[in-house]
Amino acid sequence: MSDEKFDILLDASRPAEPLPDGIPVLDLPPGHRVDDAADALESLFLTDRTLEDVVLCVGGRIVGITTRAYLTGLGSPVLRSVGDGDGATLPGESLRYEILRYRCPSCDVRLNRVHVDTRSAPRCPNGHGDLELQR
Length: 135
What we know:
This protein is an alpha/beta fold.
């Protein structure tokens, strides 16, 4: 799948290089569909109200950066204000996947995944070893 298909989710005003320190990452498995990526991003922003921007990766490759403001501007139904209804979105967590949140105990690296192969646990890109799963 071409990374260009994810352009609709990316905030063009936020270049991915150089990558800002401490920005959270959502790493999706290879072949992940764009609509599933949008669902995962909405879930991530919905469950962490302090989160303003996220690096989107597919198969470990950086695709770009998206922001809460950009997705809200697209009309994201999940990111609208409380009380706004679209008649189709049910409250609660997705039944299709769970966002797994990891953090490096030695630095501010944060990684979010929807799938983890236990044979390749996420590691800190700064060389600090395995990232810890946050509960």
